[in-house]
Amino acid sequence: MKGPTAEGFPKNFVWGAATASYQIEGAATEDGRGPSVWDMLCRRPGAIWGGHTGAVGCDHYHRMPEDVELMRTLGLKGYRFSISWPRILPAGTGRVNPKGLAFYDRLVDALLAAGIQPWATLFHWDYPQDLYDRGGWLSPDSPKWFADYARIVVRALSDRVTHWMTQNEPQCYIGLGLRDGIHAPGEKLGWREVLLAAHHSMMGHGLAVRAIRATARRRPLIGAAPVGSHVIPASGSARDVATARRATFAVAGRTYWNTTWWTDPLIFGRYPADGLKAFGADVPKHSRRDLETMRAPLDFFGANIYQSEAVRAGRGGAAEPAARPVGHALTAYKWPVTPDALYWGPKFFWERYKLPIVVTENGMSGADWVGLDGRVHDHARIDYLARYLIALRRAIRDGVPVLGYFQWSLMDNFEWAEGFKERFGLIHVDYTTKKRTPKDSYEWYRDLIATNGALLPADPARP
Ligand code: GCO
Hints:
By secondary structure, the chain is an alpha/beta fold.
């Protein structure tokens, strides 16, 4: 990879935006799509804010050409989308739905015609309902189901798609979905089962990576897109930095909010020792072969980064939380605005995993509406993105290889259990009329992309 240019971003930096199938597509029962666990959860009273569902969503399934045109005028270099498993395989395995594949065929063709590189995520949470009924990720067959599905998609699209991500945020679809019951399928299982499901999903990842490499018609670049808990140092002192690094890679007790339980096996072929200790007898019995299945060489490390906690070195190097000042900036979702997450996150991941970084998601929800002048003045989002991208530029200047950045999200969409309450988009969506209105941040991002980042303000941390 080439180093940064004068603007601070490499020459072929992938300026992107991201979405996910269930969050934007709608058309939940059309053209042969099978049901997913999210359709199921959306029917459960009280499960989703406002009783919303993704059944119609942004109606992207029907408005895809209009949406790709908006991406083209935005000047996107890359677009990260996910493929709906039950659209391709209505029952999860077996019969392929040609109309489902045809949709992604059209999408990929439209992207390429617009000069936009497609970045496909194979699984972003809309798990086929039929497979869930057959045990879901608890089934020992589940890794193979996922790999078989991956093979079908890759066979169909890999003449044009070269960038692949296996799974998005297993912490969420396993942790929030099976442990806390907040996300689909809405279960509250014990740790033993939760860890077994996690184990299978990681084996599924490993098998899928091999399936992609064996099937792809053009040389693929493969990664995964986990989330995690990001910890940053309260100061630049070596002790604080070492403490934050340790905390970033710790399994702090029995919680799924960590990075290493989900990522060390994929890259090192082993579970982290502190996690094994914390989960003890609930860790599934497994063989060396299982771990070797999980481990498959990757081409990049995808990271979804939104926020972080700051720590300082306490007594004996223990991590002490550094309280945020009263009145600290929060997004509409009440997530803290912590730009340095996009400096330390990529840096720590690069140091540990030695894979080039792709920021697969970053963005914020805002209280955005269409003003009397017909425009959406989302000043806060512009400021948020600028601050985070300045931190990312600093990481690149300090030698972290970052291949691209995908803003979350191209358009307002179905924010899972929060329904349509949270608006993360560069494009406003009126959910009644489905009208798209590019926000001020869309124009700002367009100009930023056009200058390869040169319009970013100076770095307040490194004037
Ligand atoms: C996630 C998902 C996205 C979310 C986004 C905002 O990170 O939860 O990948 O689907 O919509 O992160 O919460």
